Amino acid sequence: MRSVFIYLILFSVLGIVEVNGQDMHHQHDHKQEALKAGEVQSGHSLYHLDNEFITHRNEKVKLSDFADEPVIVVMFYGNCTQVCPILIQDSWRLYSSLSESTKKTVNVLAVSFDTENDSPEVLAEYAKDEQLDISGWHFVTGKDTDIRMLAMMLGVKYQKDSNGDFAHSNLITVLDAEGNVAKRVEGLNQPMDEAAWLIESVSKNSDETK
Amino acid sequence: MRSQTNIFAFTIITFVMMMLFTPEKASSQSVRVLVPAGSFHSVLPEVEGEPIQVDSFFMDETAITNEQYAEFLRENPEWRRSNIPPIFTYDGYLKTWKSDLEPDYEEVGENRPVTRVSWYAANAYCSEQGGRLPTLNEWEYSAQLLGIEDEAEMNRFSSKLISWYSGIDANNLPEVGSTGIETTTGVKDQFGLVMEWVADFKPIIADEISLDCGTVGRMQTLNSVYSYAASIRYITRMSFNPKITTGMVGFRCAYDESDRSDQTKHEVTL
Amino acid sequence: MKSAITKFTLLTALLMFGMTSFLSAQTEEYKIDGMTFGMPEAKVYTEDYNGSPVVGEYITQAPNLAPLDYEGNKHHEVRLDIIVQEVEVASGVRYQAWTFGGSVPGPVIHVREGDRITFTMKNRSDEMVEINEPMSQMRVNGKRAMGPSDLSAISNDGDWTSTSPFMKQLRENNFQKNKAGIMPMPHSMDFHAGTVAKDDKWRTVGPGETITFDWVANYPGTYIYHCGTPSVLMHTAMGQHGVVVVSPKDGYTEDYEVDREYVIVQSEYYLTKGDGDLYQFDFDAAYNNDPSHVVFNGHQTILHDQPLKANAGERVRFHFSNNGPSGTSSFHVIGGIFDRVWLEGHPANEMRGMQTVLIGASGSATLDMIVPEEGKYILIDHEFVDAEKGATGTLKAGPRKK
Questions:
Q1: pLDDT tens per residue, range C310-319
Q2: Residue contact C48–B46, C-beta within 8 A
Q3: Model confidence over B203-242: pLDDT tens digits?
Q4: Sign for the pseudo-dihedral over CA of B225, B226, B231, B237
Q5: N or C: which end of chain C has fewer CB within 10 A?
Q6: Where would I find the beta strands (DSSP E) of chain B?
Q7: Average pLDDT over residues A44-62
Q8: Do C242 and C279 fall within a single domain?
């Protein structure tokens, strides 16, 4: 158990270090950490993004609604026929490799950056088509600036061209119980063992602390 | 007499309260300029040869000032220096301000562009105004609408621009609107004041572009002094982290054309 | 557009192929021919540091070279922060330079072949760093320094863990008359003496960010370092360059001992009068290869104002680097012949009896000269246009001493 913890800490730190030179931690950075020590959320938690998003079930949600359990986040868009199905498939592969008990607690957020076309209704259709209109899975849209903010925090780049297509990063992110980036899986068709293992340990961890 | 004083005081207080808390304060609204649809050539290699189409949009005439930003902070305490969490900024956020809500006017003077704000803060500001940060292409498209026809003059302008990039004096920023550099549609100071955040300042191609001794050369597909200056700007901007708070980066907001308001200064026939 | 997406996907896929997880992405350290390769991944972070911008025991101001007073190899901890300083480059010509450590050229780093360097650099282009104001802004051993005496005290007990001989020399001999400035820009460090992946180690860091990485000085010689952030022409011309001297582990020759060693850095400035009193970067001049000044050790007259010293009959060694950014140098000493020359400073590249050595941009040579007799010897770039733009210096020789 102890080694799991050490691994977990290692992953959290390295996971952040990996963000293209963004969000780097260092021992000198303790001042910022100390400021937030008394709070539930760490200073680097994505749950500081306090704005409302809307799901394919027409529910208004905040990211922090998903706190206390690990979250899988993937960004995509509905009209994307080439890589996004693979991205969603990858997320499913990660999700389905989890134990039955973890599947019950983990949430998957598939966030669309096509705020113009991917209305909750379109996303509901998408979820149905992909046979992913299931508990724990949320296809999410929101205000353009909020989506942009979330993408920037995750390190997802996207750009719309004049045909309405998006060039975008392929990234699946695992958030820990507090909303910190715990693992980033970049690229398509990547092995998911480490991410899955991490989710299991986070999930277990949060069970134990309850 | 006493009650009159009270009424007077009450009126003053009410007035002040209204000044402070009226959400749609005229002064907070910047002048928005319509930038008509068009196309331009980017220095990014992904679009070599092909002009980039840009839809019409509104953009602030000038960069957001310290005063405007202070007003945003009054309404949005979570973005104040003492509250902003480290996921949204480095340590230097508004570090030259006297306090959470007071820019150091003695030091900088009034009507200066707000700087030392992270991308996240800039994005939140524009969102709050019902707008957004301009996209990279929108900003760049607008910037090159300078109306300079003569090639030699354009080269002279661009040489100066490069010198400016080598020497942005963050300690002595001029007032917004004072550079005398204005696009044909009336957008001011896109050059000569500060560099500005854009929504996608790290474009998707940023992952593929290797920043090294050859990068500027690889971007010279347009073969002009302007494109040389542009490549310096693109590269500088794309090497920023969204949490960076520096004295040479400010921002202005853009608005979709459907949000057209009566604040429009320039009507441009398309 | 689809092709752009496909291209991007393909590229990402390719990139990811060898990088199934970032943990395995790191190359293990390995050796070839006794040299060490495979450095750990660079770290980029923010730190609360406002101490000396240059830290390291063997770091000096050109033309000085710190003697290596240790046997075998050493692991150096070196810091060169990026700071903006208004400097004088010729009489009456001052500009806001982008510097490594505070001077143009930056400090001379001396190591031995095989040494490992843990390098740290904070981009402080966004803060005023006073370096000639006696230590008031500096911290010594974690405490705020009280005045100039603190620094000399450190040098006296040889504790350079929080500063460097460079800082002491710069303050005692501040010929560029530094003044602190602010000019925030992203920057990076490219050590030619290092053999690493540039997209990791030579990464660009923004104002307020710090980068740390390791490299091993595998090859002996004199190597330029410079900012690798585009426009490299602009960044280097703005002052971001210096040298690392990597002394060969077995020396250059067993035939004789050298009496003196000097570091000479040639470079160009492309400056034009700005709006105020200061000069500024002149893009047209830089682009058209037309420098306003070509100088040794950063200043048009410094090597005449402060001539190098030697005595007749001595063997003097020059570690000469042409830091450019764009020019070549035909290095010659009026009245002397280079007894031995090691091109790039590698002991295997030995040549003898050379009058002039052609050194391209970012090239170097180690040159030994026997000082013939008492008198003046002029160091010169024999490309006379460069000489007349400033690339000259004096070696003043005293009488022969037995």
A1: 999 999 999 9
A2: no
A3: 888 777 778 888 888 787 778 899 999 999 999 999 999 9
A4: positive
A5: C
A6: 32-35, 38-40, 52-54, 57-60, 195-196, 249-250, 254-256
A7: 95
A8: no
* DSSP tag of A35: H
pLDDT digits over B131-165, tens only? 999 999 999 999 999 999 999 999 999 999 999 99
Average pLDDT (C238-253) is 97
CB C276 within 8 A of CB C365: no
User: Does any CB of chain A come closer than 8 Å to the CB of residue C20?
Assistant: yes
Instruction: Tell whether C229 and C337 lie within a shared domain.
Output: no
Residue C289 has pLDDT above 90, yes or no: yes
Please give the Cα distance from B51 to B43 (Å, whole number): 10
- C neighbour chains, 3+ CB pairs within 8 Å: A, B
Instruction: Name which of B46, B166, B245 is nearest C234 (Cβ-Cβ).
Output: B166
**Bigger pLDDT: C218 vs C22:** C218
Read off the amino acid at residue A136. Answer: G
Is residue C190 domain-resident? yes
Instruction: List residues bridging with B92 in a β-sheet.
Output: none
Higher pLDDT, B80 or C17: B80
Which residues from A are below 8 Å from C when comparing CB atoms?
14, 17-18, 21, 24-26, 28-29, 31, 82-83, 161, 163, 165, 167, 169-170, 186-191, 194
Question: Considering the domain boundaries, does residue C252 fall inside one?
Answer: no
- Residue at a domain's end among C182, C213, C247: C247
Name which of C12, C183, C283 is nearest B170 (Cβ-Cβ). Answer: C183
Nearest to B241 among A22, A148, A159 (CB): A22
Q: Report, in angstroms and rounded to the nearest whole number, the Rg of chain C calculated over CA atoms.
A: 21
Phi, psi of B171 (to 5 degrees): -80, -20
Average pLDDT over residues A33-56: 73
With an 8 Å Cβ cutoff, are B232 and C230 in contact? Answer: yes
Domains and CATH numbers, chain B: 29-259 (3.90.1580.10)
Statement to judge: residues C49 and C88 lie in one domain: yes
Please name which of B123, B162, B131 lies closest in space to residue B251, comparing C-alpha atoms. B123
Q: Assign C157 a pLDDT band (cuts: 50, 70, 90).
A: low
Final residue in a domain of this structure, among C222, C247, C272 = C247
Backbone angles phi, psi at C379, to 5 degrees: -80, 135
Mean of pLDDT over chain C: 89
pLDDT tens across C69-88, in order?
999 999 999 999 999 999 99
Residue with the bigger pLDDT between B220 and C198: it is C198
Q: Are residues C86 and C225 in the same domain?
A: yes
As a whole number of angstroms, the longest Cα–Cα distance in chain B is 79
Segment C129-151 shows an average pLDDT of 52
In whole angstroms, what is the distance from residue B229 CA to residue B143 CA?
Answer: 12
Q: CA of B256, closest CA in chain A: separation in Å?
A: 11
CATH fold, domain A2-209, is Glutaredoxin (3.40.30)
Residues C228 and C309 in one domain: no
- Put simply, whether A93 touches B (Cβ < 8 Å) is no
Residue C338 inside a domain? The answer is yes
Q: Which residues of A touch B124 (CB under 8 A)?
A: 145, 149
User: C202 and C304 share a domain?
Assistant: no
DSSP notation for C38-69: -PPPPEEE-----S-SEE-TTEE-TT------
Q: Is A168 on the interface with B (CB under 8 A)?
A: yes
**Tokens representing C255?**
């035939």
- The number of domains in chain C is 2
Q: What residues are paired with C32 via a beta bridge?
A: C35
Q: Tell which wins on pLDDT, B259 or B205.
A: B205
Residue C240 sits in the same domain as residue C306: no
Q: Which domain holds residue C319?
A: 260-398
